[in-house]
Amino acid sequence: MSNLTIHSLLHHFLSKVDILRKIVFMQIKQFRRFLLKKQSSLKIIIMSIAVCGIVSLIGVVVSSAWSFFFQDDSSSILSTPTSIAVTLVTPLTNVVFAAPPTDTPTQTPTATLSPTSSSTPTITPTPTPSTTPTPLPPPPNRAYLEPMRHEYQSLNNCGPVAVAAAASFFGKTINQLDVELVIKGRPGDKNVSPSELVDYFPSIGLESVYRLNGNILIIKHLVANDIPVIVHQWLERNDELVGHYRVVRGYDSEQGILYTNDSYDGPRLVIGEEDFDAWWRPFQRGYIPVYRQEQTRQVRQILGNNWQVTANYQHFLAQSFAETQTIGDGYAFYNLGEGYFFLHDDELALKAYERSLTFPMHDLFWWYHFNHLYVLNEADEHQQILDITTPILEVTGSIEEIHLQRGYAYLGLSDVDMANLEFQHAVESNPSFTDAIIALETLP
Q1: Alpha-carbon distance values, 371 to 44, 259, 317, 380, 416 (Å)
Q2: Does residue 146 come out as left (phi exceeding 0), alpha (psi in the -120 to 50 range) or beta?
């Protein structure tokens, strides 16, 4: 067995163990907090704390093994026009977000609150700078990937089609049904997360990673090196916007366009660079390069510091802050909240999420974004979660991630029966939804 094969197997195994650790720890943490609030028996509390300690120890072992084998933190990132009024807690009218340092960050920022001359608190992330990677030579003026299979999607199936299309460039003969049966809990599942797409590729002998804060130059470099890229964007359909996956297969820099394999609009959809970025930004400019194992070095070189997950989050945080100053809309502030959330600063994440809700946002945005609900639960704003998600579910019918956080909200409000019902709805929406399955099993 080659060193590359061993490396890939260890990479995949340790990634899976670490994901499981994170899932279990999240569930136990929330359940333990509920037990403590309910003043349950001392024995149960001690047992739950002990389990959290064991899970944390597993995390330390996994992290140590990861550092020993790979010397970086390159695991994957783990995650309609009907008027819906969404309001989070008290709008932030007295908080100013201060700019992060311009140096390239690689560590979690420490937030400091300092009064301005008007006594307005200033939130200042202070990351540690690092060296700048060697710039890549410019990509060629144009590139186009072929052959690549195209398939028109069935309802809510753009994710499976995108996976099949990208894989077809490498000679894989799969279709949307093959992928759907694996990554979707049931045919009616409306939302497939980027991590679910990434998790599928090793089963067909390909590699992929999910990163935030992409840009068109990175996309061009990847495509020019025979690497198709799945992106998460808006789709304009019948005068409405819906979340959508498409595969970037080419570009022409002189014309300022990108070519995409689109499950809704055809195998060669042309998108101008400006429109491409506008549709991309509300989804944190997330991108998934798909590649063979032997192309890993090329992908790492193209991504540079963004290959490392923590550095990628820091770049994303800095870019998001910059856009709160230049664009200043709800998506910019929501992305700022995402940056803080991914860097485990729930307090600052909540402040940024709150600010984002003072702006008009497209209603379907809330079909695809859920981290603010997790943060609200951590802040004990349980009723607020129920208030803002009820009108969303009245339109969508069911979204498993929303049901999960509503379940935890009901636990926080000491309503175990309703929590059980919400967790059941989550599992019914997606029978493979591990988080909801664990939540049901840990109910008192």
Answers
A1: 29, 31, 15, 14, 23
A2: beta
Helix or strand or coil: residue 253? coil
Q: Convert the pLDDT of each residue in 177-223 to its tens digit.
A: 999 989 887 776 777 899 999 999 999 999 999 999 999 999 999 99
> Are 387 and 410 within 8 A, CB to CB?
no
Element (H, E) at 111: strand 111-115
Question: Is the peptide bond between 289 and the residue preceding it cis, with omega within 30 degrees of 0?
Answer: no
**Cα four-point dihedral sign 96, 100, 106, 110:** negative
User: What does the radius of gyration of the chain's CA atoms come to, in whole angstroms?
Assistant: 22
Q: What is the pLDDT of residues 22-52, one digit of tens each?
A: 445 445 545 544 444 443 344 444 444 444 4
Domain-wise residue ranges, the chain: 3-70, 142-307, 370-444
Q: Which of 93-102, 118-127, 306-315 has the lowest mean pLDDT?
A: 118-127
Angle at 95 between CA 94 and CA 96, to 5 degrees: 125
How far is CA 326 from its chain centroid? 24
Task: Specify which residues 257 forms β-bridges with.
Answer: 252, 272
What is the percentage of the chain residues whose pLDDT exceeds 90? Answer: 61
Paired tokens of 88? 């989070």
370-444: which CATH architecture?
Alpha Horseshoe (1.25)
- Whether omega for the bond prior to residue 81 falls within 30 degrees of 0, making it cis, is no
* CA dihedral angle for residue 83, residue 88, residue 92, residue 93, rounded to 10 degrees: 50
CATH class of this structure's domain 142-307: alpha beta
pTM > 0.90: yes or no: no
Strands 96-97 and 121-125: parallel
CA angle 309, 311, 315 (to 5 degrees): 115
Give the number of other CB atoms < 10 A from CB of residue 394. Answer: 10
Burial of 238 (0-12, 13-18, 19+ CB in 10 A): exposed
Residue with token string 């959330």: 341
Per the DSSP assignment, residues forming a β-bridge with 121 are 115
Asked whether 169 and 250 are in contact (CB, 8 A), the reply is no
Computed from CA positions of residues 56, 435, 431, 204, in that sequence, does the dihedral angle turn out positive or negative?
A: negative
